[in-house]
Design a protein that fits this description.
heterodimer, A: 333 residues, alpha/beta, Rossmann fold, 2 domains, 4-stranded antiparallel beta sheet, 14 strands, 38% helix, disordered C terminus, B: 257 residues, mainly alpha, two-stranded antiparallel ribbon, 11 helices
Chain lengths: 333, 257
């Protein structure tokens, strides 16, 4: 095993970024992404995700801290570090007047690939991303989805060990999004480490093994996806029923909302089971014909993590001033 | 990335730059050819025949080296400033900034691309000039080195302009309000011997005077300034231009956040 292989794909220590206008985008974040991982970096708009990616890729100069890519410090060994990285930015940043093949081959040249190798690689990735037929097309005439795929092909032409994707499926229809997920899973299976930022939490949950949530320039959660989802204390399920739901339906111990005469929403906390819910429904001769999560599990976790400080302070205010609120909630059960 | 990699990256940038100005040849190669041909017709043939000799030569012979140099200056400058600013504007400069290409490789790639257009237009204009006058080259070495050094200086100047430019106005202000007056007052159309002493001395601070006269010496064997002096000035401009451009690119505050 080489020194490079034994290193983490990405190591960030105490990374800070303060822009010229005084805005502190990153407040000393530290992060470790293991080689081969499929890692999600999530956060609300303006949290610092793109700044973090910008620093890793040398598009943003950092104020303080250390960043290493496969053991190569981006300050002292920047050519080695950059050679390891492929980046798919959030916004289209290729020459709109160049042809698809030229864009990918030229990018290979920037990484020192001889033209004949760059041409072969360009063909390989354009075919894999269903763009080979468009190789002679001027890039500005491509559809939004094609432009996204072009940026992925461009990022892969030098076959980086770390692929960073900043919202790669933004504005892409669901069918294409799923085909891109399949493609990225195949890329990851070949050993390429992938770091993904996305607003589609379903995407992060289905693809990524580890996750960090960044908010206001701080990492507020960093764990495996499974461990994070285990922290989810409650889930909301939507149940469609065969029978009409009466307005006086009661489910002991569950928070229930009647949506319409054939649909209910039920909140289940981590100490309750679906069997208990179904038993109560069966006792009342209610047949469930379909059931789904109201929101994606990671989405619920994401919102709860981001709102944790607010909720804690709100709850303490409520319990200090109005204890009857909890009784009201109980009465609704 | 090793030296070979940097060499491949350099060739990639140069190839891309040449491909760019050839792709839009109607905007890049045809207009200067038409403009300079009109200068040949109007200043050389129509008005020039009434002017008589200039600097000891037929006016057409005198003005041709100046007009060729004018085309080289404008197109070397124009290519780099519009291409590099376009790269900034479309943000595809990020393609290079995220890659292991060194700053000096980027600078050299753009500069050589700009020189390529300047020399291509210079060659077209030279061919056109043969329809109007005979060109007997007095000194090939001086002629060629003056052409290369001039294209290099103005490619570097275009690069510096593009780094500072934040909108399209910024890439037209310098050519319109600085470059054009310098060219017109740089001895393209007249010998500085015609000027009063004061204005002749003022003209000596204009770098284009040395380029035009150096090139004219290469073609005709006559110049308003000493040829050694002209070479020294050009080399000084190259060193200053290259150092400034590389410094600005390395600091890159206008390119990186």
């Amino acid at each position: 095993m080489t020194a490079e292989q034994s290193c983490a794909a990405l190591q960030i220590n105490g990374l800070e970024k303060t822009y010229k206008n005084g805005f502190q985008a990153l407040k000393g974040i530290s992060l470790n992404v293991e080689a081969g991982d499929f890692f999600a970096l999530l956060g609300p708009n303006g949290a610092g995700k793109s700044t973090t990616i910008g620093v890793i890729c040398s598009l943003v100069s950092k104020t303080a801290g250390q960043v290493s890519v496969f053991g190569h410090n981006i300050d002292t060994h920047f050519t080695e570090a950059k050679q390891c990285i492929g980046v798919v930015p959030q916004e289209f940043n290729f020459n709109q007047f160049e042809k698809v093949l030229d864009i990918v081959v030229t990018q290979g040249g920037y990484y020192g690939l001889p033209r004949e190798i760059a041409l072969k690689r360009a063909e390989k990735y354009l075919r894999l991303l269903d763009l080979w037929d468009k190789r002679g097309t001027v890039s500005r005439t491509l559809s939004g989805g094609m432009k996204r795929r072009l940026m992925i092909a461009r990022a892969l032409v030098h076959e980086p060990k770390l692929l960073i994707l900043d919202e790669p499926t933004a504005g892409v229809d669901i069918e294409l999004r799923r085909s891109m997920w399949d493609f990225l899973e195949k890329v990851n299976a070949t050993g390429t480490t992938i770091i993904l930022t996305t607003h589609y939490l379903e995407e992060a949950e289905s693809l990524c093994r580890n996750i960090a949530i960044i908010d206001a320039g701080n990492i507020i959660e960093n764990s495996s996806m499974k461990a994070l989802l285990r922290k989810l204390t409650r889930e909301v399920f939507v149940l469609d029923t065969k029978e009409l739901i009466s307005s006086d339906l009661k489910l002991s111990g569950f928070i229930l909302r009647i949506m319409d005469e054939h649909c209910i929403e039920v909140e289940i906390d981590q100490h309750q089971t679906l069997n208990q819910l179904f038993d109560q429904l069966a006792e009342q001769d209610i047949t469930v014909v379909s059931m789904r999560n109201k929101a994606n599990r990671l989405e619920e976790m994401f919102v709860s993590v981001l709102n944790a400080p607010e909720e804690q302070s709100a709850e303490s205010e409520v319990s200090d001033s109005d204890p009857s609120t909890t009784q009201t909630k109980g009465a609704a059960v | 990335m090793n030296m070979l990699g940097q060499w491949i990256a350099f060739k990639t940038i140069v190839y891309r730059e040449i491909r760019r100005f050839i792709r839009i040849w109607v905007q890049t190669l045809v207009p200067p050819a038409i403009t300079i041909a009109l200068y040949f017709v109007i200043f050389g043939s129509l008005i020039g025949s009434r002017i008589g000799d200039m600097g000891g030569f037929d006016y057409m012979q005198f003005v041709v080296p100046g007009l060729i140099m004018m085309a080289i200056i404008q197109n070397s400058y124009g290519n780099v400033v519009s291409s590099f600013f376009g790269t900034k504007f479309q943000r595809n400069i990020e393609e290079m900034l995220v890659s292991p290409v060194k700053d000096i490789t980027i600078l050299l790639g753009y500069v050589v691309g700009g020189m390529a257009r300047g020399l291509a237009v210079g060659a077209i204009v030279t061919l056109l000039s043969l329809f109007f006058t005979d060109l007997d080259v007095h000194n090939w070495w001086v002629t060629i080195s003056m052409v290369f050094l001039t294209a290099l200086v103005f490619s570097l100047a275009g690069f510096i302009n593009a780094i500072f430019a934040e909108n399209f106005d910024d890439i037209s202000i310098i050519p319109t309000f600085v470059l054009t007056p310098m060219i017109y007052l740089g001895g393209v159309f007249y010998s500085v011997d015609l000027l009063p002493d004061f204005w002749a001395n003022v003209s000596l601070i204009n770098p284009i005077l040395y380029m035009v006269n150096g090139f004219r010496f290469g073609i005709l064997g006559a110049s308003d300034v000493g040829i050694v002096h002209a070479f020294v000035m050009l080399i000084v401009f190259v060193v200053i231009g290259f150092s400034t451009a590389l410094y600005l690119l390395t600091r890159a505050e206008r390119l990186r956040s």
